[in-house]
């Protein structure tokens, strides 16, 4: 259940867009420069986020991307599921084809409660909450994964 680079970039881009005024488009190039992400790679991610109904895409001189109405309420689990697919939380941590309570891998019993806590944490973290943390100056976008890990530690995960 480690996040792919694609998921990390999608989350960072969405948080950055959520810090901007609602309805104000921003160019992919500007987002990629801010995040230090390859522009072409981010463009593909942004198109996926548009197909997943998280972003609007506008063409032309005043074009760019902006969050859809209510997009700030999107939680990280929704974003990760969109990028990684529904199997993200169902796949075996060791990569085995068959792993369940009935046919468990060697770490299944210890990993399952940890995974459930991580999934719960990802559901708690909305773009709005993360954008406010960034705007307050408490975190930079690139600091958020560590901040989430700190929060997990404080909750005893």
TrEMBL record:
Q: Please provide, in alphabetical order, the Gene Ontology terms of the cellular component aspect for this entry.
A: cytosol
Which terms in the Gene Ontology molecular function aspect does this entry carry? DNA-binding transcription factor activity
User: InterPro entries recorded for this chain?
Assistant: Tscrpt_reg_Rrf2, WH-like_DNA-bd_sf, WH_DNA-bd_sf
A Pfam family for this UniProt protein?
A: Rrf2
Name of the protein this chain belongs to: BadM/Rrf2 family transcriptional regulator
Biological source species: Sulfuricella denitrificans (strain DSM 22764 / NBRC 105220 / skB26)
């Amino acid at each position: 259940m480690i996040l792919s680079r694609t998921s990390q970039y999608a989350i960072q881009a969405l948080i950055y867009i959520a810090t901007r005024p609602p309805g104000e488009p921003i160019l992919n190039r500007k987002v990629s420069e801010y995040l230090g992400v390859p522009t072409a790679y981010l463009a593909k991610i942004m198109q996926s986020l548009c197909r997943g109904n998280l972003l609007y895409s506008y063409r032309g001189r005043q074009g760019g991307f902006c969050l859809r109405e209510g997009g700030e309420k999107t939680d990280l689990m929704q974003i990760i599921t969109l990028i990684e697919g529904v199997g993200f939380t169902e796949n075996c941590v060791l990569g085995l084809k068959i792993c369940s309570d009935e046919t468990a891998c060697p770490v299944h019993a210890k990993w399952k409660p940890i995974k459930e806590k991580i999934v719960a944490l990802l559901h708690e973290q909305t773009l709005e909450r993360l954008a406010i943390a960034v705007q307050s100056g408490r975190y930079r976008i690139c600091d958020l994964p560590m901040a989430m890990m700190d929060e997990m530690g404080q909750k005893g995960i």
